[in-house]
């Protein structure tokens, strides 16, 4: 005991590093992370890696087979669609639109939901509960239907779709945050922090937030996969991205017309969506386990 | 000699949250008076619902008194002014399990009161944290640990460290030994007695365990139904209890310990 340093050679990882050490132990999550990073790279470098413009029509090669078919060429790796556009370029740009916008949607919804939820959780009385229960009504209606209503009012298009999905996701985050903050406020460690003279903001960020990261991450990744699905669903219903824009859902509905003669037109965008969802869920699951292990083992 | 802590006519009435049809019974703490000298230990005993914890809450400022005053070293503690009193009066909670934030390292946990109440820079704060951890019988490296990595006894030590870190003059402990097993309990008791001798803080603690009360306290306050029914030196109360309730308590304790 005393001043001697028994664990001198041990180093103490920071919380982020600690989470990474735990995360690394699950190989399936690591595979998910690689796919996730691959899509992030696609988002960032899309114009650079796509061989053609997504809207460029090459009328010489309409419905060309993918390169692995006997009649395909290496120039159009994934073949072409019914207007002679390169499917690979369209999938790359479509992933950019679908995945990128979904991430943006979830970030905005989390930020807004967290601030309102924290306000409702820390506050007392009518103001706080009005905020909470007014938005409960919205949670009853499925997200897709709210999105369709909003699109019906503001017209079709990617932007109104984006707002629709964001708005329908906010109440869930408000509820989550509010419940977590409410529960934490009854814990003794919050009383202890209050007796140290901590203000409400300080208690929220220093005492409660460190314990909220796990549920926030889990719900964030879940929301991300929901956002991807809904954005492509609205695109598929022709309510989202309009004709020339490459968006995975819209590509699926375009491909449906020629599904029998050119199945790669729906298989490839569909596979992209599937891969995204798998990656997001694997990473989310791995993060949840890692964050939980960090604070329990 | 003027006393360290003086409590005058402190009273409290729990705000009843009765609904339209149902009146909830409210708890009332009758005005209480006591004094505490520096380096002295006072125990508060009594059964559940007798107002012991309320007294502790009023002292540390977790609840607002209805009337009366708390005077520390001649300075009146303003109700609601936590900044003023958290430097001087600190609390040790009953369950260290829930009073230590599971999401923070112990270092971050102990850093908080320092950050909020002192002007020290980061390096200086770290030194104080390490010193305090060593003082309560842990090691400086424990600053990097999370609460779940420690045993119950170690957690209780961290709770004590958290109370000590601001160099308080009075420590209020709400049943600090209740959740511990006997061997760890006696370790913690000895730790507190030693710290009190070294640092000369006033110590107010609430306990059901009359053995510990007899062992470490100088004076006793016996409470029942929100009233102080008897107060005095430990020897006197244990040997010549006056009130019927105190007699029963002492008799029960003695019949257990003689067996």
TrEMBL record, chain A:
A Pfam family per the record: BPD_transp_1
Record-level GO BP terms: transmembrane transport
Transmembrane spans: 30-50, 97-120, 140-165, 216-241, 261-284
Top-level lineage group: Bacteria
Residue stretches making up the ABC transmembrane type-1 domain: 95-284
Subcellular location: Cell inner membrane; Cell membrane
Any one annotated GO CC term: plasma membrane
CDD domains reported in the protein's UniProt record: TM_PBP2
PROSITE patterns for this protein: ABC_TM1
Main location: membrane
Keyword tags: Cell inner membrane, Cell membrane, Membrane, Transmembrane, Transmembrane helix, Transport
Membrane topology of this protein: Multi-pass membrane protein
PANTHER family, alphabetized: OLIGOPEPTIDE TRANSPORT SYSTEM PERMEASE PROTEIN APPC (PTHR43386), PUTRESCINE EXPORT SYSTEM PERMEASE PROTEIN SAPC (PTHR43386:SF5)
Family as reported in the entry's similarity comment: Belongs to the binding-protein-dependent transport system permease family. OppBC subfamily.
Name of the protein described by the UniProt record: ABC transporter permease subunit
Organism: Neptunicella marina
Taxonomic placement: Bacteria, Pseudomonadati, Pseudomonadota, Gammaproteobacteria, Alteromonadales
From TrEMBL, chain B:
GO molecular function: ATP binding; ATP hydrolysis activity
InterPro entries xrefs: AAA+_ATPase, ABC_transp_ATP-bind, ABC_transporter-like_ATP-bd, P-loop_NTPase
A Pfam family that the UniProt record links to this protein: ABC_tran
Keyword Nucleotide-binding: yes
Protein name: ATP-binding cassette domain-containing protein
Upper classification of the organism: Bacteria, Pseudomonadati, Pseudomonadota, Gammaproteobacteria, Alteromonadales
UniProt entry keywords in alphabetical sequence: ATP-binding, Nucleotide-binding, Transport
Keyword Nucleotide-binding belongs to the record: yes
Family: Belongs to the ABC transporter superfamily.
Domain of life: Bacteria
One GO term of the biological process aspect: transmembrane transport
Location of the ABC transporter domain: 5-250
